[in-house]
């Protein structure tokens, strides 16, 4: 009886012709439309002076849009809030993409030992190279803006490890952050040696990218619909180029997390448990929504020290009392900005449910998004009100120098 050394094994991607073809098309098109050169050029040519008087995003994508601060701001201050939305938003994307580069590689390590999985690994190599260009552009532009406006960091930060908490402003203490680092290290080890767990990183990545896609499409339209694209601000162009790359990344997340995984053996009980714990962690990360910034699920009280510093900065020039009063006005009552952010959160919630609906190994708590679904508009306001009262009490009657010192320490901790 003859035997072919080249006969596909049980776990063969090539044997699934439809999935292989879809992955190949996505990879080839991403190569052909790679925006790395455009993004690198924009970062290299960025000059804040040349675009400091322009919006970089649609107006509603401005920091604290739809709050009393926005309503009473001058036209120049509104421009700054619009630009600072870009800075803050893409600082969060930097953190997420640092993690993506690392876990792309650990996931690939779990897959490349299987026959015919080179295409998946090549796809992830291309995406990681693109992520490095994205990070460089976001970091270069954001740091130049904050240096020009404040002479110090507000939202930016030095480069960070992929084991640091991905969500920049989250409701987590020291113990939880330490535990999260251990979980990330454990997941890296498991995904690098297990094809199923490696594939399921892309289920989580797909959910996170889906949320980003909802917002980034709107950010990209500022450039794509601009009447004079040649004069459009370079950060707006970066938003557009980034969205084009990320569209392919979302496609590959979906194909790997939902279809490539179908070529593998059925998951064991342990593998299902790991995946569901990972999805539950994503739900906790996305539990909150933010009045500060629509589309990023930050915990507003963790932002109070940063926003306080913004209000005291030359951009707004408020006194201590004025800044604390403004925090209460913006965060302690119903506003159009809070409502818009809540609606974005609900859209993401429903999108995540649809994304996970056909995955049989996802448990009911994750399929129904039970943790994330407990977030509510009323709870958001009450949490903010309590935090504002605590914030005001902690900083009342302190000398200005000591207050600034404590604010900086609190921000570093947050």
Overview of this protein structure:
With 414 residues, this protein is an all-alpha fold. The protein has a domain at 17-284: Ribonucleotide Reductase, subunit A (Orthogonal Bundle). It contains 17 helices and no strands. It has helices spanning 17-32, 36-45, 48-51, 68-72, 75-111, 118-149, 174-192, 195-224, 234-259, 269-285, 300-312, 320-331, 336-356, 364-367, 370-373, 377-395, 400-413.
Task: Spell out the blueprint of helices and strands.
Blueprint: H1 17-32, H2 36-45, H3 48-51, H4 68-72, H5 75-111, H6 118-149, H7 174-192, H8 195-224, H9 234-259, H10 269-285, H11 300-312, H12 320-331, H13 336-356, H14 364-367, H15 370-373, H16 377-395, H17 400-413
Helix pairs in contact: 1-6, 1-9, 2-6, 2-9, 5-6, 5-7, 5-8, 6-9, 8-9, 8-10, 8-13, 11-12, 11-17, 12-16
Distance between the termini: 67 Å
Helix amount? 55-70%
Average pLDDT number:
89
Strand-and-helix sequence, N→C? HHHHHHHHHHHHHHHHH
Number of strands: 0
Percent of residues in beta strands? under 5%
CATH architecture of the domain at 17-284: Orthogonal Bundle
Low-confidence stretches: 5-9, 396-414
CATH-defined topology of the domain at 17-284: Ribonucleotide Reductase, subunit A
Describe the largest sheet.
Answer: none
* Envelope shape: globular
Structural class: mainly alpha
Q: Quickly name the level 1 CATH class of the domain at 17-284.
A: Mainly Alpha
Rounded Rg: 22 Å
Compute the number of helices: 17
């Amino acid at each position: 009886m003859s035997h072919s050394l080249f006969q596909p094994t049980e776990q063969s991607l090539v044997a699934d012709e439809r999935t292989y073809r879809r992955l190949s098309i996505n990879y080839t098109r991403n190569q052909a439309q790679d925006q790395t050169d455009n993004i690198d050029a924009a970062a290299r040519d960025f000059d804040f002076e040349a675009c400091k008087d322009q919006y970089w995003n649609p107006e509603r994508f401005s920091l604290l849009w739809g709050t009393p601060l926005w309503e009473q701001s001058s036209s120049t201050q509104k421009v700054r809030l619009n630009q600072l939305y870009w800075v803050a938003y893409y600082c969060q994307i930097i953190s997420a993409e640092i993690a993506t580069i690392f876990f792309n590689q650990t996931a690939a390590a779990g897959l490349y030992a299987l026959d015919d999985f080179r295409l998946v690994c090549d796809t992830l190599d291309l995406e990681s190279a693109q992520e490095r260009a994205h990070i460089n552009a976001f970091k270069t532009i954001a740091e130049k803006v904050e240096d020009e406006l404040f002479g110090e960091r507000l939202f930016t930060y030095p480069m960070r490890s992929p084991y640091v908490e991905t969500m920049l402003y989250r409701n987590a203490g020291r113990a939880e952050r330490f535990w999260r680092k251990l979980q990330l290290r454990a997941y890296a080890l498991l995904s690098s040696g297990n094809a199923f767990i490696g594939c399921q990183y892309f289920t989580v990545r797909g959910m996170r990218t889906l949320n980003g896609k909802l917002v980034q499409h709107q950010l990209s339209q500022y450039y794509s619909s601009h009447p004079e694209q040649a004069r459009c601000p370079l950060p707006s162009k970066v938003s557009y180029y980034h969205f084009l790359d990320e569209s392919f990344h979302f496609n590959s997340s979906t194909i790997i997390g939902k279809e490539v995984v179908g070529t593998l053996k059925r998951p064991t009980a342990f593998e299902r448990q790991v995946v569901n714990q990972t999805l539950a962690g994503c739900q906790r990360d996305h539990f909150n929504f933010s009045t500060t910034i629509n589309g990023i699920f930050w915990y507003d009280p963790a932002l109070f020290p940063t926003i306080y510093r913004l209000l005291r900065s030359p951009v707004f020039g408020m006194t201590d009392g004025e800044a604390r009063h403004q925090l209460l006005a913006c965060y302690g009552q119903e506003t159009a900005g809070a409502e818009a952010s809540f609606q974005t959160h609900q859209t993401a919630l429903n999108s995540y449910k649809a994304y996970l609906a056909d995955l049989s190994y996802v448990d009911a708590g994750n399929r129904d998004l039970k943790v994330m679904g407990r977030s509510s508009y009323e709870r958001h306001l009450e949490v903010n009100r309590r935090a504002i009262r605590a914030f005001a009490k902690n900083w009342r009657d302190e000398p200005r120098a000591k207050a600034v010192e404590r604010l900086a320490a609190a921000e570093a901790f947050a």
